[in-house]
Specification:
nucleotide-binding, adenosylcobinamide kinase activity, 186 residues, alpha/beta, kinase, globular, cobalamin biosynthesis, 20% strand, ATP-binding, 7-stranded mixed beta sheet, 44% helix, Rossmann fold
């Protein structure tokens, strides 16, 4: 069975660079799942730089949901290792897809969105295990900063934090990056 590796840390802590380095050692056929959406010039530039940093022989799948359909994607099927970068962008995209007014929505509506996030994460783990893939997840550590002063920030932090805890519990290895230095914590 493939193994799960989780890499977490703050913004610009070196998570992606370390994830790419560790992924190179886990298999010969790598598929990268990019969850970012190029919604502005800054994000377009980040995506471009991420693409340039990856080995050209890696295949890329651009998606942040519908992971249960990966068994129909040749890039997933032929990979022995899948690197998803990043979980927190995936959470953001699913939150935005909901169309909710986060200042006025009910906790039940928020719970439904969180259920959708967990459905996607668990679906990816399940299909990766069915096909014996290694999975490397990149995520932002969201619990070390200030409490966000607005409701959407709190909702995002809470959902992302619970997803990170779940992934850490499922992972065989967990790394925390600080200033470009990875530390193995599990």
């Amino acid at each position: 069975m493939g193994k799960i590796i989780l890499i977490t840390g703050g913004a610009r802590s070196g998570k992606s660079k370390f994830a790419e380095k560790i992924t190179k050692g886990t298999g010969n056929k790598i598929t990268y799942i990019a969850t970012a959406i190029p919604f502005d010039e800054g994000m377009k530039d980040r995506i471009k730089k991420h693409k340039e940093s990856r080995p050209q022989e890696w295949n890329t799948i651009e998606k942040y949901k519908d992971f249960k359909k990966l068994d129909k994607d040749e890039n997933f099927i032929k990979a022995d290792t899948v690197l998803l970068d990043c979980i927190t962008l995936m959470v953001t995209n699913i939150l935005m897809d909901s169309g909710l007014d986060f200042d006025k929505c009910s906790m039940e509506e928020i719970d439904k969105v969180e259920d959708e996030v967990f459905y996607e994460v668990k679906g990816l783990i399940k299909i990766a295990r069915e096909y014996n893939k290694n999975l490397v997840f990149v995520t932002n550590e969201v619990g070390m900063g200030l409490v966000p002063p607005y409701r959407f920030g709190n909702i995002f932090r809470d959902i992302a934090g619970r997803v990170n805890q779940y992934l850490a519990s499922e992972a065989e290895e967990v790394y925390f990056t600080v200033s470009g230095i990875p530390m193995k914590i599990k």
